[in-house]
Protein: Extracellular solute-binding protein family 3
Organism: Shewanella halifaxensis
Amino acid sequence: MKKSVLVLASLGLTGALMLTGCGKSDDVLVVGTNASFPPFEYVGGASGDEIMGFDIDLARQIAKDAGKTLKVENMNFDSLIVALNAGKVDFIASGMTITPERQASVNFSEPYYEATQMVLVNKDNNSINSLDDLKDKHIAVQLGSTGDIMAKSYSQQVTAFNSGFEAVMELKNAKVDLVLFDSEPAISFLEKNPQLKMVELDFSPEFYGFAVAKDKVELLNSINTSLSTMKQNGGYDAIVNKHMK
Ligand code: ARG
């Protein structure tokens, strides 16, 4: 008698553990992001601590189409792929550029946004007019971003920060010569920092995709189906108009 109670109790415990296991349930889709990348993802809203933006709206529709609710996990940009492959998040929506290096460890959805790198400098700096001018400059970037990788190909002096905000602070304090960052967030930082200006150089286009673990083929298909439906029914354009100027 005692024994069976014990067995049942331990079964109950295992069951409970299995259910709560990794903090995920079947009706929740967990998206990983780094919310320091306006207008794609940032912290704001009435409460001041809501994670919102272009990617989050797309991700919410993706979850809705899959009959699930969206849960957002905010983390450092360079932790996202590790978290994805550890099963901590189901997909990444973080303005992540599709690159062959990343494609070695994750699958990407169809591209959903075209961007490019942009240079931010203090207004009085007229020394950057071509890619060649970057080579003797001190560049601030976001750790693990394409800007980080690219900056290192131009200059020996690159300092990487956990967020674009921190890189911009460093520029405003004249600790670096420029920030190399994606175009839309660069524009968004510019609006809040009138002492800065943007310099457009000849960088190649980049395409953002949602990242999914290699073995989650069904999820990848459902993300792609949601994206193409949104592109056809005007949902995508509405989200663009809501977030982009
Ligand atoms: N597009 C760049 C990359 O993929 C930067 C993305 C940064 N995203 C973010 N949410 N902080 O590396």
Notes: The chain has two domains: 28-113+206-243, 117-199. The longest strand covers residues 28-33.
